Amino acid sequence: MRHRRAAALALASVPLLGSAPDRAAPLPALMSDTGGGSQLITALAPGTGSTSGTVTWWDLRNGQWVEAGSTRARFGAKGLVEGTSRRQGTSTTPTGLYDLPFAFGVKAAPRGTAYKYRPVRRDSWWCQDNASRSYNRWTEPRPADCRAAESEHLLSYRAQYAHALVIGFNYRNPVRGRGAGIFLHVNGRGATAGCVSVPADAMRRILAWAEPAAQPHLGVGTTSGRTAITRY
Questions:
Q1: Could you report the per-residue pLDDT of 166-177, keeping only the tens digit for each?
Q2: Most buried in the list 51, 52, 166, 211, measured by CB within 10 Å?
């Protein structure tokens, strides 16, 4: 599903893997992969110990990446970690490049939202029980094999899940123990349990901007090092 379009756009200026991005070029042009579509969201942190950074959303226009918006962002309370080695319950945000399967929210979809948008109801849950057949899936209602203590009752997070996008981390072929329920959502009181969060107004703008036909992806990473966003 992934392609190498972004690297080809700026091959001459791509830094060595793990080095800091060249600020003269738009960040997506320096990434190894952008998902093959014409929209991209980047979530950039200064380092793996960071709990805050920047989320920027981009459009590919006439072969050039153009910034469509930007905002401050929050990450996991324990920082960021390579997605392929992440462990569940560590309060870390997984780095990598991910698709965005669908949107959801306690509140109605913002005007202009084109994404599939699921309303959060009283019996809406996200199963995080490693023993369940519904691991890392929205369930409605919660199945018998998915323990409530090991899952999120989505309606209990009215502020954070007012609007959200599912991040495709460990989603298509879930690996038990790697993590479940990683979203791009509205800010809570502080750092997240592993999600990426942004102010409410920014989340509404992202949903009004995102076009499923443009295949938007989310790239999460740091400015340099083994988890540099340019590696993904």
A1: 999 999 999 999
A2: 166
- Answer whether 95's CB lies under 8 Å from 83's CB: yes
Residues 6+ apart with CB under 8 A from 43: 53, 54, 55, 73, 75, 93, 184, 196, 218, 219, 220, 221
pTM: 0.90
Residue type, 193: A
